[in-house]
Write a structure and sequence with these properties.
Its EC number is 2.4.1.-. By secondary structure, this protein is an alpha/beta fold. The protein folds into 2 domains: 235 residues, Glycogen Phosphorylase B (Rossmann fold, 3-Layer(aba) Sandwich); 192 residues, Rossmann fold (3-Layer(aba) Sandwich). The protein has 19 helices and 14 strands. The strands form 4 sheets. Strands 11-10-9-12-13-14 form a 6-stranded parallel β-sheet, sandwiched between helices. Strand 2, helix 2 and strand 3 form a beta-alpha-beta unit. Helix 12 crosses helix 17. It binds uridine-5'-diphosphate-glucose (UPG). The site of uridine-5'-diphosphate-glucose has 25 residues, from helix 1, helix 14 and helix 15.
Amino acid sequence: MDSKPNPLRILFFPHLAHGHMIPTVDMARLFARQGVKATILSTQLNVPFFSKTIERDRELGFEIDVLVIKFPSMEAGLPEGIEVISSITSQEMGFKFFKAVSLLQQPLQRILEDCRPDCLVADGMFPWGYGCCKEGWGTKAVPGIPDKITMTRRQQPTELRESGANVEITNTTEKPWVTRRQQPTELRESGANVEITFPRTGTTYVEHYRKTLGRKSWHIGPLSLCNNNTEDKSQRGNANDASIDRVKFLRWLDSKKHNSVLYICFGSVSWISAAQLNEIAKGIEESGLDFLWVLRKTNKDEDEWLPKGFDERMKGKGWIIRGWAPQVLILDHEAIGGFMTHCGWNSTLEGITAGVPMVTWPLSNEQFINEKFITDILRVGVGVGAQEWSRWMEGKKLLVTKENVTKAITEVMLGEEANNIRNRVSALKWMAKRAVEECGSSHSDLMALLDGLGLNSI
Ligand SMILES: O=c1ccn([C@@H]2O[C@H](COP(=O)(O)OP(=O)(O)O[C@H]3O[C@H](CO)[C@@H](O)[C@H](O)[C@H]3O)[C@@H](O)[C@H]2O)c(=O)[nH]1
């Protein structure tokens, strides 16, 4: 690949959580493919989650690298080794973790002064990210004139300077999924509900975002589609090489009929009680469906909750994967006919992009809102009946019963509506694919954004 002598340099700083690192790394790779020099900023222990992917892109000639920022564990009273949300095991540890994250502001500022990138893409979870750029560290080429003139932010007219504010780059296509990244807290605080915030009166959500909310935004997703080979898909977000296991369960999936296997995964941070896991297992068994079930390593050992004899009875019918599974690869497999999901935004988009009907089981964060989009607006899934937030509190929460589980999964995979749901989600799948192709809306937004940042004027 021809590399420009002075490419546009963008620093990407994702939150220290898989659900944020994964799409940000995809985004950085997407930008690098357009000639941007992309640098991903992260802490030492998080780099292995994406370093192999980055190395492969570098071998292909793309300008993408990684910069390490020290995580202030000690300063926040955290033990060494806790640098990603999925390692948090208690509420107290969670508070300390977020304290440490907030302490990253000053080191970020120093990095910006040293590196002087043209642009910082900071995670929405770092509300102080934009403030770090206000000091005028960056230079920007003035677009639209024949000669190259660069100015620092401080030298720019206010208008130009302000235009950089509150830039939203969303991992979405032009469907309703677009706006939710920052909604939950606002929604909860305002007491409003989904219908009020997103009226369905013929206007698309993108228009709503841009016109009604007046937010500058570029809708460039679904980002997972930039992983277009098996290696990329299976290593996405994964520090270990799970190739042996991968081959095993992919072969198993190959032996199954189209759309016959239920895939179950609750994302990278959720926590499910032993009693609830027991109900899920019984519900799956009752449905008679084949399944592939991903469990985080932090979940209780199977002998604490797995119904007696489950393993024996489910031989050949199901797999339980402990740890990290290559989700995008699995969802793309034609044997997968349903996805039981906690409605994390990445999983939601990945399910839609793969054209897989969903069984929705929101747990926390903004997931109950995402569920409404899946079940009520897009109508590509059926709710399992989750009624309340659950996090950290074993045994005190309202359980979703095994009957609820059986009912929802059979409705999505076999029921009268199953075909209609499948047709609707298939239509969205193709829409999503078209959006990222050349001339598609996401591709056009990406080009417009890079143009605005001066990619072609440098
Ligand atoms: O075994 C696994 C588990 C997860 N994933 C991937 O990890 C990501 C998980 O992201 P998401 O589905 O968004 O769930 P969370 O990890 O729970 O993400 C957090 O961050 C999201 C983005 O802000 C929010 O929407 C969620 O509510 C919040 O819990 C997805 O890309 C999955 O494909 C895997 O590849 N393998």
